[in-house]
Design goal:
Largest sheet: 5 strands, antiparallel
Strand content: over 45%
Helix content: under 10%
Order of helices and strands: EEEEEEEEEEEEEEEEEEEEEEEE
């Protein structure tokens, strides 16, 4: 930030302050004309202002190296002289972009809970709203669900930063057997810089469902996963696996080759 004042011959002091929304006032520094020195006030901002001045003008620079949400305030430069005073103000707003991703197994059994399909999001600053999107067909239409605060599991809570997790249970429960369901999650933030409509969304992911009865009467046998060309199922553990790269499951040998 920089402030410039012209025609200030005879100035005596330059005061640099910041005024917070909670009415708290901090004095960052006072620059004295007579001694050309700087004295510091009660501010927690440990950055020295730089000043270029002569007998008729002054430019004050304030560099905040690590900007945090606690630095949101109205910053004021006030210059006094024998004839009076002038001041200039700058209102500082801090923005941090949100991010979101879906964490989900590649396949689920149809009788499994959806608790392990999750949205993990850094909700940015100022804090945005979590959005779940679900599509039940191959079209482009998604249904939007805004997540209430009480449904968010806060993983990290720091000044200016919250990382939360939300599972998809309750947001969709139909059409799963069709293997057409697609999901997205994200953050709605009206201040988002990277989005014209305020939505910062994860890439969409399909929800792949394997019928729960596929392992009936199979015992501990390994069987081919009919929903994935190179996948197989460990029926004894109800575990869905994928063969290593360049191999596929051989139904006769019951192994990847």
């Amino acid at each position: 930030m920089a402030w410039n004042a012209e025609n200030i011959g005879g100035w005596t002091n330059i005061f640099l302050t910041r005024h917070f929304s909670n009415k708290k006032l901090e004095t960052i520094a006072t620059i004295h004309a007579d001694t050309m020195t700087i004295s510091y006030g009660n501010s927690t901002l440990f950055v020295s202002p730089r000043t270029i001045f002569d007998q008729t003008s002054a430019t004050v620079y304030l560099d905040i190296r690590v900007l945090q949400c606690q630095d949101e305030a109205v910053y004021t430069v006030r210059i006094t002289s024998d004839l009076g005073q002038i001041q200039r103000q700058t209102e500082l707003h801090v923005l941090r972009e949100p991010t979101a991703k879906i964490v989900t197994p590649k396949y689920l059994f149809s009788d499994e809970t959806l608790d392990n399909i999750k949205c993990e999001a850094d909700i940015g600053y100022p804090y945005g709203e979590i959005v779940m999107r679900v599509s039940y067909d191959e079209g482009t239409n998604f249904e939007n669900y805004f997540v209430p605060r009480e449904m968010m599991d806060v993983q990290i809570a720091e000044p200016c930063k919250e990382i939360v997790s939300v599972n998809f249970t309750g947001f969709f429960d139909r059409g799963l057997e069709k293997n057409l369901t697609r999901i997205q999650c994200g953050v709605y933030d009206s201040n988002a810089i990277r989005s014209e409509d305020g939505y910062i969304m994860s890439p969409e992911k399909p929800v792949r469902i394997v019928p729960a009865n596929i392992c009936e009467a199979k015992g501990s046998q390994l069987i081919h996963n009919p929903y994935e060309p190179c996948g197989y199922i460990e029926c004894s553990q109800r575990k869905l696996n994928t063969c290593p790269v360049s191999t596929c499951f051989d139904q006769e040998l019951l192994k990847c080759k």
